[in-house]
Amino acid sequence: MPKGITSEQIKQLPERYQRQIQSQLSAAIASTDTCEDGKPKRATRNALEKDPQTPRIGKAVYLVVLLFRTGTNFDLDNASIKPFLDGIVSAGVVEDDNCEVIQGFIKLHRKVKKKTEERTELEFWDADYFSQYIEAARRYI
N or C: which end of the chain has fewer CB within 10 A? Predict the structure, then answer.
């Protein structure tokens, strides 16, 4: 049982939360591989605090910014991505946000129905793979 939580407290929760807790605890126990000496190879407790497992992108990418918004009455150029770029560099997702690493970015609007569904998502597309398609899609109107 996790530290600080008693089985009595869990029993007071709604059934779906009890099932979720049981499922997560079972998965954590099952995923702990042991070495020959019987000690776990990895501890699931505090794993994210010790090693956040941030993916490192070591190749050139295109950054695709998906803006999920309720309205369509805003300008894409006013949606600043600078805080996101600074955040992914700060978190170590990419080493730098220069043009060698992030060769370009695309902002795409996606309509959602509720304000609570609004969000911004980042996708990283392999620049070596997608460059040919981006160049093929260029047409001058």
Answer: C
pLDDT in tens, 91-123: 888 888 898 989 988 899 899 999 999 888 889
**Residue 86: which residues within 8 A CB-CB, separation 6 or more?**
97
Which one-letter DSSP state was computed for residue 55? P
Q: Cβ of 95: how many Cβ atoms within 10 Å?
A: 12
According to DSSP, the residues that pair with 63 across neighbouring strands are: 105, 124
**What are the angstrom distances between the C-alpha of 103 and each of 24, 58, 92, 136?**
39, 13, 18, 16
Per DSSP, the three-state class of 61 is strand
- Three-state DSSP at 68 gives strand
Inter-residue contact 38 to 96 (CB < 8 Å): no
Q: In this structure, what DSSP letter does residue 117 have?
A: G
Q: How confident is the model at residue 1 (pLDDT cuts 50, 70, 90)?
A: very low
- State residue 20 phi and psi, 5-degree precision: -65, -45
